[in-house]
Specification:
Two copies of one chain form a homodimer. Chain A is mainly alpha-helical and 184 residues long. Helices cover 77% and strands 0% of the residues of chain A. Chain A binds a DNA duplex (30 and 30 nucleotides) through helix 3.
Chain lengths: 184, 184
DNA sequence: TTGTTTACTTACTAATTAATAAGTATTTTC
DNA sequence: GAAAATACTTATTAATTAGTAAGTAAACAA
């Protein structure tokens, strides 16, 4: 149960989402852990292996999130999802979907598949949550749940990116506007 | 007026928006132009100089866009803006704002300022166009023009990013939903 | 206790990177 | 026609990169 492996994933995730996949190197992680580069290669032979580990961590993390809030009302679930993105924005990161999207064409196909699957899962969850909420008359929106889900996701993940450039004042406005949109 | 300089900017722009700022090198451009690396350094001594040239090109390009559609109705202007993003998506690129946003913390402060100014200009233009359209009863939306502008921009620029991952079917749905939202 | 696995280090390679200096041919300017 | 600017090439540097091979020390398993 090497905890080093987990710490490497955490540091890799932070670097990918703060600096970008192609802007960090194994030595960034090695220096932070006070070990040699080869120690990182021991746990993750190649950089795509580390990327894969990071994506898997997000998949597991999102599964835990879904489980954690499954008992709450649909409105609360969506609000919790928006809060997750707020914490991303406040920590100066971007989400893993956005981080990989811009570097997409420099990523291995294998990693693309994993990111694709993760992203599909997130969109499905939002869609279903919106759909269930509408059925129970807890949520209101026009158009298909899928399109509404994509709208919310793009607002949030580009919101976190945009906040780096223009500051964070717009982000909370964006978030409130989404809640208004699906509750009025 | 060396056209090489312009071609380098075009190639640099394409590489930044297709592969990412940290995923391309001067040799990518040099090979495409069939010249030596040093020839690129002659026109743009450092990589941030090239990034600056690319951002300036986008600023001038956006100014031309604003001028070109200033005589049209506000609805048409917004539609033209959405069409611009559609062409980005179809060409497999992301917009310059999104491209720099994810690599933000690996960019020089000087470049960050230029991107910030460009982004501010884009948001202002959307806001004002929405605001004018509302006054003339051509457009309808709840909330402030600024928030609505940020919503549209995030939908579009994350939409182009997301389309890389999930395919382009969602993008047109997103676009239609925005038009519906501001016209009904 | 012996052997094997784990988690590293040391030491290295080959490739790529951004960047510079010095030289050259062509064009432009005075 | 001389001087200077333009647009490169050749050649090189120093740094960084991802990745590997071989060795080691400690924990663990039979």
């Amino acid at each position: 149960m090497s905890s080093t492996r987990e710490v490497i994933i955490q540091l890799g995730d932070e670097l990918i989402r703060k600096k970008g996949y192609n802007a960090f190197s194994y030595s960034d992680i090695a220096k932070a852990l006070n070990v040699k580069n080869a120690a990182i290669h021991y746990h993750f032979p190649t950089k795509p292996d580390l990327a894969s580990g990071v994506v898997r961590w997000h998949t597991e993390s999102f599964d835990r999130f879904v489980k954690k809030c499954s008992a709450k009302s649909e409105l609360v679930q969506i609000k919790m999802f928006l809060n997750y993105y707020t914490s991303i924005q406040l920590s100066g990161k971007v989400c893993i979907i956005g981080a990989f999207a811009t570097d997409w064409n420099s990523m291995e196909q294998h990693i693309q598949e994993e990111v694709r699957e993760f992203t599909g899962g997130v969109i499905s969850w939002i869609s279903e949550t919106l759909s269930n909420g509408k059925e129970k008359n807890l949520l209101t929106f026009s158009g298909s749940p899928k399109i509404e889900a994509v709208k919310i996701l793009t607002n949030m993940f580009a919101g976190a990116q945009l906040a780096r450039i223009t500051g964070n004042e717009d982000f909370s406005g964006l978030k409130n506007s989404i809640i208004e949109q699906i509750t009025k």
